[in-house]
Design a protein that fits this description.
heterodimer, A: mainly alpha, 11 helices, elongated, B: 4-stranded antiparallel sheet, globular
Chain lengths: ~260, ~280
């Protein structure tokens, strides 16, 4: 618990900045809905008939003129990519920052043990992602309250549950990268978060690379799919949980066995 | 007579970094209650040995026992009883000195406030400053507090005095002697020979990853090496001499010597002598 408290304290500033940026943007965009509602109604038809662009963003299946559609196609995108970037960055620096900042010698010569360090650092990543998602959901809730609108609760929570799994998966992949690296891989982490999003867009448009839907966690956590189908693809969610666990276990195994730089 | 237990027992330690040399076949014993010097220039393998002892590096061969515990299997228990001061002291820059010290105590589930405050007073540590605002010397002081506040059974110090001013060095060694008198064993890695000669009872010399000599500092200082200075034809000449004194006197006989001084070498010169001796032996092999 000492290490968990320490890590949360060290990451508090970054958590606040990201939650304010992503959460406040979601809040602002939700409040904007009523002022652009009329224009949205006029454009909804055009948006749904833009071929691949509409398919990629799911606007051919849900109307952007409803709050539900607006949330699934616009707000969800900000939440998904913003959250993925935060998760990726948090996971990617939590172990490697010690070696890059030359604090690894101090930390690893305290009687924690490497197993304890890797466990509690991973718990810190999970907790930070949970806090990020929870705070951003609160911002969205405030937005709905401010706009005086509601969206279906079941789909809303299914979507955010799937998003949490997606963020945890990306955070865990980057945690594994962090366990291998001696330098903070922030660029790689942010690149990965964006690359997986692009994969999702591409595999929705190009049938030949449809198999990428099993690779990118953005696919199963896509808001439009969840709001239209009112369900979550459980096998893909299972793959995501499997990848998350595998990355965490691999990270622990590698970190416990390798030489640590001062 | 009771046999004194070993605080450190290293047997045949080998650590390589890919194709690069680390240390090779190191064997070393440090008795409990000793202040042991570990001498060698930069890159000789001092830090590799220490970091293998503390579990930072995974070595390929050999065994390390610290306080009769296996360094690989009982790392956590060892670290609980050891205080370590690294050569390059770095902490989390945004943390205050007092928070770093408290964090190190909490990691051991101990309340070390009293001892920490005492050491901070002795070393004049500003507890309220952030680490990023501290100079190297002041960071070293925080490191000393972190290493000593839990009154460890074994202190491992890797080049502890670099960055400390002479007054602080004196205060630091006073602390070391105080802890040692209470039973703490000290393992002092250094390339400053004078501090090893002044404070250590036994020492080992490491060269290119191998131990070339382990002995008491007294014996290490004893050698048939002599520093000879002669004043001849108004000129001063100095050289080192190893061998029989009769032969030296014979060689000097008949020369126009105005004055002669034969003295024991300094530890620095002895250190270099051991290094050269080792090199000659290697050449012969």
């Amino acid at each position: 618990m000492t290490l968990l408290r320490h890590e949360i304290k060290m990451n508090l500033k970054s958590l606040l900045i990201w939650t304010v940026c992503v959460g406040f943007t979601c809040f602002g965009c939700i409040l904007l809905y009523h002022s652009i509602e009329e224009d949205m109604s006029e454009m909804a038809g055009a948006f749904s008939q833009m071929g691949s662009f509409s398919t990629a963003l799911g606007m051919d299946r849900i109307s952007i003129s409803t709050m539900e559609g607006y949330y699934a196609t616009e707000i969800a995108l900000i939440f998904a990519v913003g959250g993925a970037m935060f998760a990726a960055m948090t996971g990617a620096v939590i172990l490697s920052k010690e070696e890059e900042g030359h604090t690894s010698e101090f930390l690893n010569t305290l009687p924690f043990g490497r197993g304890y360090i890797v466990l509690w650092k991973y718990v810190a990543v999970v907790l930070l992602i949970l806090l990020f998602d929870a705070i951003c959901i609160c911002w969205c809730g405030l937005g709905f309250a401010g706009a005086g609108s509601t969206i279906p609760a079941k789909e809303f929570w299914l979507f955010h549950g799937a998003q949490l799994l997606m963020h945890l998966e990306i955070g865990s992949i980057c945690f594994l990268i962090s366990a291998i690296s001696k330098r903070k891989q922030i660029g790689t982490a942010l690149g990965l978060a964006v690359l997986l999003y692009v994969m999702d867009l591409m595999c929705r448009i190009v049938p030949d690379i449809e198999c990428l839907k099993y690779v990118t966690p953005y696919y199963f956590s896509n808001a439009t799919d969840i709001f239209v189908e009112s369900t979550l693809n459980s096998s893909m969610a299972g793959i995501s949980i499997g990848v998350t666990i595998l990355c965490a276990v691999l990270a622990a195994g590698i970190y416990r066995r390798r030489d640590l730089a001062a | 007579m009771n046999k004194v237990e070993n605080a450190i027992a290293i047997s045949n330690l080998t650590k390589t970094y890919g194709k690069n040399r680390g240390v090779s076949g190191i064997s070393l014993e440090v008795k409990k209650g000793d202040i042991f010097g570990f001498l060698g220039p930069n890159g000789a393998g001092k830090s590799t040995t220490i970091r293998s002892m503390l579990g930072m590096l995974k070595f390929q061969e050999g065994t390390i026992k610290i306080l009769q515990m296996d360094a690989v299997k009982q790392q956590k228990e060892i670290l609980r009883k050891v205080g370590y001061m690294p050569s390059e002291t770095m902490f989390y820059p945004s943390m205050r000195a007092k928070d770093v010290i408290r964090f190190a105590a909490k990691a051991r589930d101990l309340d070390c406030t009293q001892e920490a405050d005492r050491i901070c007073q002795l070393l004049e540590v500003n507890m309220d400053k952030r680490i990023e605002e501290l100079s190297l010397g002041n960071r070293k002081k925080v490191s000393i507090v972190c290493a000593m506040q839990h009154k460890p059974e074994l202190l491992i110090l890797d080049e502890p005095t670099s960055g400390l001013d002479p007054l602080m060095q004196e205060a630091f060694f006073k602390l070391i002697l105080e802890y040692n008198s209470q039973g703490t064993t000290c393992f002092l890695s250094s390339h400053v020979l004078s501090e090893v000669k002044k404070y250590c009872k036994n020492a080992a010399i490491i060269k290119e990853g191998k131990i070339i000599r382990v002995d008491s500092v007294e014996n290490l200082s004893k050698s048939n090496l002599r520093r000879v200075r002669i004043w001849e034809d108004g000129q001063e000449k100095a050289f080192s001499y190893t061998g029989e004194m009769k032969k030296l006197i014979g060689e000097l006989e008949g020369r126009n010597i105005e004055d002669l001084l034969i003295e024991e070498p300094s530890l620095d010169e002895l250190f270099m002598h051991y290094y050269e001796q080792e090199a000659h032996e290697e050449e012969r092999v």
